[in-house]
Amino acid sequence: MKKNIVLFLLFNSFFIGLVQAQIVPVTASSADIYQQLKKLNVLGSVLYIAAHPDDENNGLLPYLAKEKLYRTAYLSLTRGDGGQNLIGPEQGIELGMIRTHELMAARAIDGSEQYFTRAYEFGFSKSADEALRVWDREQVLADVVWMIRSLQPDIIIARFPPDARAGHGHHAASAIIANEAYAAAADSTKFTEQFKYGVKAWKAKRLLWNTFNFGRTNTISENQLKMEVGAYNPLLGKSYGELGGEARSMHKSQAEGRPRRRGEVFEYFVHVAGDSAKTDIMEDVNIGWSRLKQGREVTVVNPEGKESKVQLSTEADISQIQSTIQSIINQYDFKQPEKSVPELVKLYKQMYNKMPSGAWRSQKLKEVQEIIEYASGLFVEAFTQQETALKGDSVRVNFFVNKRSNVNASIRSMRFTGAEDTVIMQAMEKNRNYQYARTLVANKGPEYTQPYWLRQTKARDGMFVVDDQQDIGKAWSDPVYSAVFDIEVEGVLFQLQRPVMYKYVDAERGELYQPFIINPHVEIYMGSTVVLTNVTDEKGKNRADSMLHIVYRSNFSQQNVTTTLNIRQETIKPVFSREQRNFVKGQRQIINVPLSKVYNPAAAAQYLEATISIVPPGGRTLNFSDYFKSIRYNHIPTISYAFRDHVKILKEEIKVRGKKVGFIPGSGDMMPEALKQMGYEVKELNDADITDDNLTEFDAIVTGVRAYNLNEWLSSKYDVMMRYVERGGNLIVQYNRNQGGVSAPKIGPYPFQISSNRVTEEDAEVRFVIPDHSVLNFPNKISSVDFIDWVQERSTYQADQADSRYQSPLSMNDTGEKASTGSLITTAYGKGNFAYVSLVMFRQLPAGNPGAFKILANLIAMPKH
Known about the structure:
By secondary structure, the chain is α/β, with parallel strands linked by helices. It is 21% helix and 29% strand. The protein starts with 14 loop residues before the first strand and ends in a 5-residue tail after the last helix. The protein is built from 18 helices and 46 strands. Strand 28 (558-568) and strand 29 (572-583) form a beta hairpin. The strands form 13 sheets. Strands 14, 16, 17, 18, 19, 20, 21 and 22 form an eight-stranded mixed β-sheet that branches. Among the domains are: 45-287, Rossmann fold; 522-650, Immunoglobulin-like (Sandwich); 656-860, 3-Layer(aba) Sandwich (Rossmann fold), CATH 3.40.50.880.
C-alpha cells in the first residue's frame, strides 16, 4: 500500500465559533463541497487591513471568499479592547476577547480568515500620531509584514485613508501601517529575523483603499474602480449582502445587528501603491494554476516511504493537476459526493508529489484533504465530558469516528499529540459509530489555560507581549491537547487532528461544545479592585470598610494541605503560614484581614497582591496569585483566562452626604460597587420600581452608561423621574449615545442634545468655568489634581446645544480643537437637581481614581433648593 506524508489540518478549519453560539465540528453539504471543488482552481489571495473588530467590510469579504473564491483574510490591528460593551460589564482585555470571538464567528459565516497584531486598543483616538505613539509603531509594522509574508496576498486592501477622513486615529494609523508594510514586506533587508521561520520577502501586486460612504463622510466617486458585490449565489441560497448582514450581526457586543441586504451592492477602490488597476482588483494577476509553472527541485516520497529530491517537469505536472481538478468538477454527483473521493485521493497524491513547495502547495493540500473528509462523510472528534481539569489530572477522552458513505476507509491508529500510537486497524462500515476511550494525562504546557497574548504583562500600554514569533497573528491560542486520527481513505493514509473538546447537552440549547480548560489548583481574588480607607460623612464618621476580604476558591479536594497566604505591598506580610487546611473542590473561602495588619499608608506602592502557596501531602510547592475567570455568552464559546489580581488602596479622604442611592442599570459599568465602597446603600431599580412612592426613599438616582439606549421603558418614566427631581431628588445620568434620536426631552428637564463629541486625551487640561459650582466644592473641593492619572479618555458623547438654564462647570478639549463644555451639565429643577455626566466615570472608578470618587460624591450631594 502506498503512503504519503500528509499535512496536519489547522484547528480552526474544523472547530470554530458559529452562529449557533457553540463550537461545533464543521460538516459540509453537497453544494458546499462543489463550491470548494471550484475553489481548487483559484490561486488568488486578498488581505484586508483595518484597525478594529467591526471595521471590516462585511459586504465585500463574503464576495471575495465565496464568489471569487480567493483566499481572503482580515487583519485587525487590535482586538477592540478599548471599545464599549453593550451586552455586559466586561471592559479592556475581557472585551477584547469577546470581540475576538465575535470576529471569528463572522469569519465562519463569510468564509474568510481572521488575524491580529499585538496592538492594544486603548480607546478612541483623534490622531494617527497618538495611535502610533501609544502603540510600538515598529512592532505593529513588523506584525503586519509578518502576516503579508506568511499569507502572500496578491492584493492588499486598506479600509481607511491615512488622514482625518478615517474618522478615528486608529483607522488612519492602520492605513499608514498598511502602506509601510506593503513596501517593507518586499524588502529583504527589513525584519530579517522573520526569515528563519520560513517566510520570505513578498511583494503584493497592489495596495488599494476601499472607499466608503459613512453618511457624514463620503469618499466614493464614480471614477474609482467599481465592483458589484451583491450577487446571489444559488449554491448558498443567499446573496453576499445577506451573508454580510449575518456576519456583521455577530458583533453583538457593539450592537452591530444589520439587515440581510438584497439587490445590487457596489464597492469602490482607489489605488495606493503598486500596479494600478482599472476594471478589477485582480487585474493582471495570474490566479490560475499556470502561475506555478516554474522549474523547481522538491522533495517527494516514494512508495517505500523514502524521501528523494527530483526536478519538476512542471509544465506537464501542473497541467495534469489542473486537468484532474476539472475532471472531478465535471463528473461531480451532487447526490453522491463520495463518488469523487477516489479521484480526489489521486489529486492529493499528484499535488503532494508534483507541486512546487510554497504557500500554495500547503494551502491546496489542506483544501483537498478537507474536501476528501467532507465527501467521504467522515465525522471525527475527540471529546471529554468534563469541562475542566488540573495539570497532572487523568481525563477520560472519547475518540469518535463515523464514516457516512461507501468510501473505502479504515482507522489505522489514534493518539494524543506527542504520545505513542494506539493501533486499531479497524475497517469502517457505513454509518457505524466507532468510539474508543483513552486516558489523557494533562501534564504538558502551562499550569493553566491562558490566551497566548495574555501570558505576559503588557510592557507598555499599547502593546501585548508575545515571545513566540509563530503565535503572532493567530486569532486564538492553539489548544493545549489534541488528538490525531490516522485514517486510511482509498489506500492513502491521512492524519486528522482535532482539539480535545468538552461536549455536553443543554436542556434548552441541545448539544454543545466548549473548550477543554486547564484550571489552576487554587484561585485567589482580592474582593475588589479598589479599597477606600477614608470615607467620612457629615458627622465625621468613617464609613470605609476596615477589612480586606480575600477570597480563594479551590479546584481540587484534599485534606491536610500545608497552606500559606501572603500579602505583598513593598514587603511580604503573612496572613497565615504553613497551616494545615482542607480543600474542597468548588468551595470558596473568605479570609477577612484587618487592613491595618497588611497595609502601610507610607509606602510608595499603594497596591496589594495576594499569593497562596500549597504543598499537598507528598507533593511539590505550588504558588498561585491569579484569579481564573470565565466569560459566558450564548453567541460565542466560553472564554476562560487568568488575571493577576491586585487591589488599589485609596487613602485620600472622600467626603459623602446622603445614605441611599437608586441605580438603574445600563451597559455593565461598575458604578454600584463604587457606591457601596463609598458607604451608600444601593438598590438596583427596574421598570416596576420607578414609581412616585418608591423613589422618595433615595437621596439620589444614578443611571448606568447608556441606560436610556438600552432600556426602552425609561422614556415612559420621564414624568415620574422629573417629579422625583422636582420634589428634591438628585438625578445623575451617565452618558448615552445619540443613536435612535435620544435627546433631552426624555432625559432632562430642559432641552439639550447628545453629540458624538469627546475628549480622548486622558491628560487634557480641565478648566473650571464656574469655580464656585457646588459640584466642584461640596462636600469635596475639586482641583486639577483630581484629574491626574485618568485612564484612556476624559469624556464621551457630550451634551450639546443645552438650554440656557443648564450650567456647564467644566471646559476641556483635545490638542488643536476648540474648547467644549458638554462633559458635565447640571440644572436645578424644583427642589432637586439634574446632571448629565459624560465624564468617563465608568473607566475611572474601577481604575481607582480618587477624583472620580469625589466628583461622584459631590453630584449625589448637590444641595436642595
